[in-house]
């Protein structure tokens, strides 16, 4: 998970019903290692207390911001000795029972746009966005190999209809009229702005799903 999220280090903790105890770690800075067993303090109000209260995950964008960094020696050790700047705590539960947490840290602050880019790029699906005129504006790294679209085609920033037409003419949708198929699909996408999913069609050796969203949709 540390590699997937491009984290500097991470650690796994089990929960005994009262406190979290570290059981494994990866890339842990030596100067911070001695503080790890003390991170979950009784009566604390930080990320681990929020997980005990039911949170599925806690994301701290900047560990140096807020009152905790100024008042907590453990938070200062995490930042000053461990070099951590961003934290993500993920709860591990089974049948609503809290079993532990997995925590990862980056050593640089990644704001919302950069965080989103990393998340989208690591999705197994292909994700693509069209602007208000339904022209291609952005896509993740899996979109192109899933659909086997050439670089020259994407460089032209084709419209949604042009993308569908290209795939239809290549036979991706079976024996259909490419012009009618792409026109209907484009009208549907432009009309509601909702994300749509396309699985690979029968007869293709490739696998995966592409998800399309028009800019401005929620």
Task: Report on this structure.
The protein is α+β, with helices and mostly antiparallel strands and about 220 residues long. It has helices at about 45-50, 65-70, 75-80, 110-120, 145, 150-155, 160-170, 180-190; strands at about 10-15, 20-25, 55-60, 85-95, 95-105, 125-130, 135-140, 195-200, 210-215. It has 8 helices and 9 strands. The strands form 2 sheets. A 5-stranded antiparallel β-sheet has the order 2-1-5-4-3. A 4-stranded mixed β-sheet has the order 7-6-9-8. Helix 7 (about 160-170) runs antiparallel to helix 8 (about 180-190). It is elongated and about 65 Å long. The model is unreliable at about 195-205 (pLDDT under 50).
Taking the alpha carbons of the first and last residues, their distance comes to 28 Å
Low-confidence stretches: 193-207
Assigned CATH architecture of the largest domain: 2-Layer Sandwich
What's the overall average pLDDT, rounded? Answer: 78
CATH class of the largest domain: Alpha Beta
Order of helix and strand elements from N to C terminus: EEHEHHEEHEEHHHHEE
Number of domains: 2
Number of strands: 9
The CATH topology of the largest domain corresponds to Beta-Lactamase
List keywords for this structure.
Beta-Lactamase; 218 residues; 4-stranded mixed β-sheet; alpha+beta; 8 helices
Give a topology summary.
Blueprint: E1 9-15, E2 20-26, H1 47-52, E3 57-60, H2 67-71, H3 73-80, E4 86-94, E5 97-106, H4 112-121, E6 126-130, E7 136-139, H5 143-147, H6 151-155, H7 160-169, H8 178-192, E8 196-199, E9 209-214
């Amino acid at each position: 998970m540390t590699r997937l999220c491009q984290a500097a280090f991470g650690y796994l903790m089990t929960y005994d019903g009262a406190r979290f105890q570290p059981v494994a770690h990866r890339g842990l800075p030596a100067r911070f290692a001695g503080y790890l067993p003390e991170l979950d303090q009784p009566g604390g109000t930080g990320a681990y207390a929020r997980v005990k209260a039911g949170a599925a995950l806690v994301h701290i964008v900047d560990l140096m911001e807020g009152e905790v960094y100024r008042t907590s020696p453990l938070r200062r050790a995490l930042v000053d000795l461990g070099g951590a700047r961003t934290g993500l705590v993920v709860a591990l539960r089974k049948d609503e029972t809290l079993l532990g947490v997995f925590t990862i840290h980056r050593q640089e602050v990644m704001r919302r746009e950069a965080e989103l880019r990393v998340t989208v790029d690591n999705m197994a699906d292909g994700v693509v966005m069209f602007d208000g005129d339904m022209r291609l504006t952005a896509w993740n790294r899996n979109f192109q190999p899933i659909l086997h679209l050439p670089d020259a085609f994407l460089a032209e920033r084709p419209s949604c209809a042009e993308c569908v037409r290209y795939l239809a003419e290549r036979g991706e949708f079976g024996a259909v009229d490419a012009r009618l198929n792409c026109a209907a699909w484009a009208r549907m996408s432009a009309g509601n702005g909702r994300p749509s999913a396309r699985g690979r069609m029968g007869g293709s050796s490739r696998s995966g799903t592409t998800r399309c969203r028009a800019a401005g949709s929620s």
